[in-house]
Design goal:
Layout lengths: L1 E9 L2 E7 L3 E7 L5 H13 L3 H4 L18 E10 L2 E10 L3 E8 L2 E4 L2 H12 L3 H8 E2 L6 H4 L4 H10 L2 H29 L3 H76 L8 H61 L3 H16 L2 H58 L2 H37 L14 H52 L3 H73 L3 H79 L4 H99 L7 E6 L4 E9 L2 E6 H4 L2 H19 L5 E5 L7 H18 L2 E6 L11 E6 L9 E4 L1
Parallel strand pairs: 3-13, 3-14, 8-12, 12-13
Antiparallel strand pairs: 1-2, 1-4, 4-5, 5-6, 6-7, 9-10, 10-11, 14-15
Helix pairs in contact: 4-18, 7-16, 8-15, 8-16, 9-14, 9-15, 10-14, 11-13, 11-14, 12-13, 16-18
């Protein structure tokens, strides 16, 4: 059951909430008030779409209310239950982000993506969007759309509703596949007819022989190539050896020239270096270096001592400052200790702990008593709720039965009014009047015809009367014609007046018949007043009894609540007192902790002053030592700089001596190298003539190898061509054989598909017959409950070759006949027939039909049809369908029994949102 819907900025709704009930729910209002918007919202909440959105007649962003241009978002929330479990689905629309969805079960998330939400709803309700639109929701003024469809469209529409279109689709696809396979089969047959597999096999044999001969020739060329290639390699190695020896000889010659040039250059460089005595210079250098090391070590030691003294002085200064700070802090600590010792902290803490224990002993008893009272209060409230529900249900039933009594009184009043009119006697009188008028009109029409014939005869060229055979002169003939023409005018006037009177009498007779039918309907509706009064009396007694019980329970609840409030105040007072004492406990605990910390931090001031004095003595002593060290560092640094300058001058002389020795050694080594290279050059005996002879032999063999290679590659290419041709022929033969096999398979496939197609057609026909039979059975049972007259016994849906037709069953000459509703029925009859068909189709498509939605169902109905429809909505349809939703502007539908009615109002001139009032 759909329980409620909430619309936020949806179309013309700003903030609308509607609670639905079982049975009939009516949305009443003028055009544009927002009635259909609510039904569209139900469809959108369930399936994310509705007909206008699905067909593209409206866009998603157009669903956001235009009453305020700044609105960017709209939402729909629908609450429904399945098997007594509540589900809530919410869909939001954002101008930028599009639509999103959420479904919850008893307040817990199930799914959040629109697709997953749709799947969850379809699984719960056992229907999808197509079934909802086909079986449940009839759009505005589309109740009789079936009758307005063209031939072919009607069959397609009904088949889609019944799910038979899938069979047609499968049949069409099967026909298409058969056609496609036939086209491919014809192509394969053309290939087979144009192929000669015998000729291809002969060509393959000839190519295979040529391949063998070419292969032998290639093998011989391979051997010749291998022999000549071996000779070519040997000649190439000899050629490389000779070239290498000649290159080596040229290289040695170049090296001899370079070495000689280098020796001359080195001799020239030696002559430019000054000659210095080597004796004693190294000892002098070493003694100077030793002195530098000694001074450096001494300086390092002095600097370390300098750093240590500086650190000691700084540390002593820091210790003095630290100790002075400790003396100042100690004075403050002593002062704080004296203040805290005055408060007797330990004694006060002991008193506080005892106080807390005594107070807390009273709490458990009071809490236990409060729990018992709360439990009793819960039980009383449950009884209160149950009795309240029973009283509300009884009052609702009393109101319902009182409404039945009021309706009964109205019906009795209407029956009395109608019975006063003596309808039966009046109908008999009107019937006689109609009969007499018909006789009079027929008589006058006979006279008119006879008189007209007279005039025709008189106008002929005659001299005797056609009746009495007396002589007629021209004047008499003119006189007679004039009299007869005047008689015709009088007779025509009489016929016209009588026909007008007959028309009015028939209209009066129709009104009397309607009143007669209404009287019969009212008598059928009339209920036993005494039994209704008994029900009301019984319900009233039960309600009074429950109200007394409820009053007693309410008094008990009030007493319980007062007692619980008193206990709660006492408990709260105790807890507050404990909290206050605990806060005091924390304060004194913190003070105790602070006192202990102060004891630990307290120091002896005499010891600190002794440390300060010691630090000052250390600073004075170390400062004197530091000044002496600074003086020594300065003296030693000056001596070190002087010795380093002397070492630099000695290093330059040593460098000259080393350079001269190095060059002389290099000259000696190069002279030895020059002699060795000259001996090596003299040993090489190879000549340019030998190189040219070997090169000529190599070129001759190389040419022969290339010639064999060209011939081999040509034959190899031809051999590969033969292989390719053989492969091509084999492929053609295989392809023809495969085509032959494939053709046979496709012939069998077409045969199987033809059988499958026949089975589909037979299944579709059988299923259609069963479904239409089910629809007709439902309509046969519904028709007497829906149609207010007896001219149509029932209606049925007939199946023709390319169409369906809705036909009415009538009695003619004591036999049943069928006539097309489409051809003969009035607008109202068409609407009633379409409503019957729609309900029947819904019940067949959805066997356990829970909802039906009707948009303007009274369209084209007369007052009798509307009254019958009210009776259907009040009594018949709620027994078939759990919930009926009706959208209407027809005020007559307010009289539907037990309906929940919402009236929608909207000032369209100011573009204000819809306002809703529950009637």
């Amino acid at each position: 059951m759909i329980k409620s819907i909430h619309l936020k900025n949806w179309k013309v709704h700003s903030d609308t909430t509607i609670d639905f009930s079982k049975g009939v729910n009516i949305l009443l209002g003028i055009m544009g008030a927002g009635k259909s918007s609510i039904i569209d919202a139900i469809s959108f909440a369930l399936f994310g779409t509705f007909p206008a959105l699905n067909s593209g007649r409206v866009k998603l962003e157009e669903l956001i209310s235009n009453t305020n241009p700044n609105l960017k978002e709209a939402s729909v929330t629908l609450v429904f239950d399945v098997n007594n479990v509540d589900y809530s689905v919410t869909r939001k629309i954002n101008k930028k982000k599009g639509a999103d969805a959420l479904i919850e079960k008893d307040g817990k998330y199930l799914q959040t993506q629109p697709k997953r939400v749709n799947e969850e709803i379809e699984s719960l309700l056992k229907i999808d969007y197509d079934t909802f639109i086909k079986a449940i929701y009839a759009e505005q003024n589309k109740l009789d759309s079936f009758l307005n469809m063209r031939k072919g469209e009607r069959k397609k529409g009904i088949d889609e509703m019944l799910g038979l279109d899938h069979f047609s689709s499968v049949e069409e696809n099967t026909t298409s596949v058969i056609g496609m396979i036939n086209r491919v089969l014809k192509e394969d047959e053309q290939i087979l007819n144009s192929s000669n597999i015998t000729a291809l096999k002969e060509q393959l044999q000839k190519l295979s022989l040529e391949k063998e001969e070419t292969s032998k020739k290639i093998d011989k060329l391979k051997k010749d190539y291998a022999i000549n290639k071996s000779n070519l390699i040997k000649l190439n190695e000899s050629l490389k050896k000779i070239k290498l020896e000649l290159d080596n000889k040229n290289k040695l010659n170049n090296e001899l020239t370079n070495i000689s040039s280098k020796i001359e250059t080195l001799k020239s460089e030696v002559s430019k270096i000054p000659e210095i005595k080597e004796e004693g210079i190294q000892d002098l250098y070493n003694s100077k270096k030793l002195k530098v090391n000694e001074i450096s070590i001494k300086l390092d030691e002095l600097r370390k001592e300098q750093i240590n003294l500086t650190k000691e002085i700084a540390t002593a200064n820091s210790e003095i400052k630290s100790n002075q700070k400790r003396l100042e802090d100690n004075e403050k600590i002593e002062s704080q200790i004296k203040e805290l010792e005055k408060e007797n902290i330990k004694e006060k803490l002991s008193d506080i702990n005892k106080n807390i224990e005594e107070i807390q002993k009273t709490l458990p008893e009071k809490n236990e008593k409060a729990d018992k009272l709360n439990h009793k209060l819960d039980e009383l409230r449950k009884e209160q709720i149950n009795l309240t529900k029973e009283i509300a249900t009884a009052n609702s039933e009393i109101k319902s039965n009182q409404k039945r009594l009021e309706d009964n009184e109205k019906i009795e009043s209407q029956i009395k009014e109608l019975e006063k009119e003596n309808i039966k006697e009046k109908l008999e009188g009107k019937s006689k009047e109609i009969e007499n008028l018909n006789i009079k009109i027929a008589s006058n029409e006979g006279v008119l015809k006879e008189t007209s014939n007279w005039i025709v005869e008189l106008k002929k060229d005659i001299s005797k009367c056609p009746v009495c055979d007396r002589d007629i002169d021209t004047d008499l003939k003119v006189k007679l014609i004039k009299e007869k023409e005047e008689q015709i005018l009088v007779t025509k006037k009489a016929i016209s007046d009588d026909k007008e009177l007959l028309k009015n009498t028939k209209s009066e007779n129709d009104i009397l018949n309607l009143k007669k039918n209404k009287l019969e309907v009212l008598k059928e509706k009339l209920e036993d007043t005494e039994s209704i009064n008994k029900i009301i009396l019984l319900l009233t007694k039960n309600s009074e009894k429950n109200e007394k019980e409820l009053a007693n329970i309410n008094a008990s609840i009030d007493e319980n609540v007062k007692e619980i409030d008193t206990l709660r105040k006492e408990i709260k007072s105790i807890e507050e007192k404990v909290e206050s004492i605990k806060r005091e406990q924390i304060v004194y605990s913190n003070k105790e902790k602070s006192l202990n910390d102060l004891y630990k931090r307290r120091v002896n001031p005499i010891e600190i002053e002794a440390d300060i004095s010691k630090s000052k003595d250390s600073i004075e002593k170390n400062t004197a030592k530091l000044n002496e060290i600074n003086s020594n560092i300065k003296t030693e640094t000056e001596i070190l700089d002087k010795i380093r300058n002397e070492i630099k001058a000695i290093e330059e002389k040593i460098e000259y001596i080393k350079r001269r020795k190095t060059i002389n050694l290099e000259i000696q080594e190069d002279t030895k190298k020059l002699k060795a290279k000259k001996d090596e050059f003299d040993k090489i005996t190879v000549s340019q003539e030998q190189l040219e002879k070997v090169q000529s032999d190599y070129n001759e063999v190389y040419s022969k190898v290339n010639s064999i290679k060209v011939e081999y590659e040509s034959d190899k290419k031809y051999f590969n061509s033969l292989i390719s041709q053989i492969s091509d022929k084999l492929e053609q033969i295989t392809r023809i054989e495969e085509t032959s096999e494939r053709t046979e398979k496709r012939r069998k496939m077409i045969s199987q598909l033809e059988k499958f197609k026949t089975a589909i057609i037979e299944t579709e026909s059988g299923l259609r017959e069963k479904l239409i039979t089910s629809v007709n059975e439902v309509m046969y049972n519904l028709w007497p409950e829906i149609y207010p007259y007896t001219d149509y016994q029932s209606i049925l849906l007939k199946v023709y070759k390319d169409d369906y037709n809705l036909e009415g069953i009538i009695i003619r000459d004591g036999k049943e006949k069928t006539i097309s509703i489409d051809s003969f029925a009035s607008g109202g009859e068409r609407s009633v027939a379409s409503l019957t068909l729609r309900i029947a189709l819904g019940m067949v498509i959805v066997p356990n039909l829970k909802w039906i939605i009707l948009d303007e169902p009274t369209h084209n109905l007369d007052s009798a049809g509307i009254n019958k429809l009210i009776s259907i909505f009040s009594e018949t349809l709620p027994n078939i369908v759990e919930q009926i939703f009706i959208i209407t502007h027809d005020e007559n539908l307010k009289s539907v029994h037990f309906a929940k009615i919402y009236e929608l109002e909207r000032d369209k001139s100011t573009n204000n949102p819809t306002q809703i009032l529950e009637l």
